[in-house]
Amino acid sequence: MAKKTNKTQQTKTSKPVVRQVGKGASQPEQSSRRKSSIKAMREKIWTSQMIMEISIYSIIIILTGYLFYQRANDFNLVYCDDNIFVIDYQRENADPENSFKIWEEKFWTKDNHIWTAFKRTIGTSYYRPILAISFMADYKMGQDKPWVYHRTNVILHVIGSLLVFIFLFKLGYPRLVSFIFGMLFVLHPVLTPAACWISGRNDSLITVFILLCFISMISFYENKRPWVAGLFLILNFLAFALSLYTKEIAAMIAFVALFYVIFFRKEKIFAVKNFILAGGWFFIGLYWWGMRTKALTGIKNPDTIGFDALYKNFATVPAMIGKIFLPVKMIALSNFEVFSIVTGIIIFLALAAYIIFSKRCSRRKTLFGIMWFVIFLFPTLMVRIVYVDDFFDYAEHRAYLAMVGMFLVVIEILISYGIKFEWKKPLPIIVSFALIIVFFFRANAYVPSFEDRKTFWSHMTYMYPYKSRGYLDLGKAYYVEGKLDTAEMLYFKGIERNPDNFNLYIDLSAIYMRQNKFKKAEEYARYAVKLDPENHIANYNLGKSLLAMDKVVESIEPFEKAAIRNNKYPHWFIDMGVAYFRNNQFDKAVNAYQRALMLDPNFLIGYTNLGAAYARMNDPKNAKIAWNNALSLDPKMYEIYHHIIRACIFEKNYDEAKQVTARLRANGGQLPPDIIQQLSQLKLKF
The whole model's pTM is what? Predict the structure, then answer.
C-alpha cells in the first residue's frame, strides 16, 4: 500500500509539460502571454493619457501666463534700477564682442588710470554674467526699446511657472494637484514684479535654472538606462552652472539636494549617483568661485553683509509668508507691514504646530518644503542694501524661488487631511479655482502700477506716504517732463518726511539752476554737501552754481571733489576746465578738457575750449590742432576759422592763413573786421 501510494503521489506531482509540436507554447503559456500583452497595452494607453494630460495642463499654464501679462510689453521703464540695465549699460549691451567676451570688460580713463580688463560684474559687487547675457540679447533684438525687455521677463515668468508644475509632478504629486499649484504660481500677485518690472528678472531667471537642475537630477536618479541617465546628468551640470552664473544663491542647491535625497528618496547618502552629482557640482562650483573671486577683486561692496543685515532683515520671513497666503498691500519694494508680519507669524506657528503634533503629516516631505523655503531665502537676508532704510525693507519678487517650498508644505498638509483632487469629487477643485480667480483679480489690479515712471512712484507715495523716497523719484519724473513747480513741491514733501535725505536737496539745486536761481541752487547744494560731503553730484551742483555767479575760485574745489568721486561725465570736466580757464590756470584747463575728450571724442565744445586754453598758453600749434578737430565735427563754426587765422597770423604763417580763409569762404563764412584790419596793416590780401 505504501508503495502504491508513493507511486500514485509521484504520478500526480511529476506530471510532465507537453508541448505541441509546430504550434508554439502550451495553452497556459499562451494565456500568460495574453495577460502580459494586455497589461503592456494598458500601460501604453495610460502613458499616452498621461502625456496628453500633462501637455494640456502645460499649454493652459503657458497661455494663461502669457496672455495675462502680455500687456506689460507696452510698459515703459519705471526708473528703479531698470534704467541702469537698459540705458546705463547700453555701451556694454551694444558691444557685439560681449557675446564672446562676456566675462571681460574694459574701461578707459586718463592720467594713467587705465583699468585693465577684469571679470564682469553687475551692480556693485554681484557676479551675475548670465543676467548680463539676457540684457545683451534684448539689446540685440530691440536696442533700448522697453517692450523687448518686458517680453523677456514675461516669457521667463511663464517658463518658471511651467517648471513649477513639472517639478511638483516629478516629485510624485498628482498631475492635477501639480497643475493647480502651477496656476497659483503663474497668477500669484506677489510674483507680479518679476513679470512686469525689468529689475525683477534675476529671480525668475535663477528659478528657471534651479528647477531645471532639480528636474534633471530627479530624472537622473529615476532612469535605469545608463545613456538616458547620462543625458540628464549633463543637463543637470549645465543647469547647475547656469544657476551659479545667474545668482550666487545657487550655491545653496547642494544643501537642498541633500534634503531631497534624505526626505524623498530615502537612499543611502554614499550611493554612487550621489557621488557623481556631488563631484560634478564641486568642480563646477570651484571654477565658478575662482572666476567670481577675480571679478570682485578690488571692488568694494557698500552694502551691509552678515548678521547685522540678518537682524534688520529677519522680519522678511514672516512678512513674506504673510503675503504668500494673504497678498495685501502689494508693492514691489515693500516695508515691514504689521498685518503681513502678524499674519505670517500666525501661519508659521500653525504650520509648525501641525508638523510637530499631527500624526497624519509626512514630516519628511513637509520638512523638505520648509528647508527649501528657508535655504533659498536665507542668503538674501544676509545682505542689506545701502541707503534703503528710508526706502524699502524687502523685495516681493524675492519670494519667487522660496514660494516653491511653501507650496510643498501646503500640498503635504492637504494630502495628510485626505483631500483628493479628482474630477469625480469637484469640491477641492472648485475651491482651488476660486482661489486662482481671486489671485487673478488681485494681480490684475496690481499690474498697472508698473506701467511707467510716474505710475510706479505714485503707487509708492500712495502706499507709503510717510517715506521720502517715493516723493524723490516721483519728483524726478516731473523734473524730466519740465514740470519744475510740481517737482519742487514733491521734493519739499520728501524733506518734510526726512530732512536728512540729501538727494532731495541735490534735485532742488538742479531745479533752481534750470530756473537761473543760482543763489538758491547754491543754498540747497550746500545742504546736500553738508549731509554727504563726498557726494559727487552734490559737489558738482555746488561748483556749477558758484561758477554761474562768478565765484570762480570757490567753484574749483567742489568740481575737483566731484571729478575724483566720479570721472565718467565729460561735461563735468568741461565745466571744471572753464573754472580753471577763468582762474588763469590754463594748464589745468587743458588737462580737464583732454579728460572730457577721452570720455567723448566727439564732444565739440571740448575741442573749442581746448584750443582756447592752448592759445592763452601761447601754444598756437596745439590750439590749431584742437580747433581743426572741432571743424571736422562742424565745418560751419565760423568763429573757429577766425581763431585759426589769428593763430596763423601770430605765427606769421600767412600761407596757412590764406588756406583757412579759403575754407571759411567755401563754407559760407566771411572774415571779421578785426582780421581784415590786421591783414590791411600787414599789406596782405586774401
Answer: 0.82
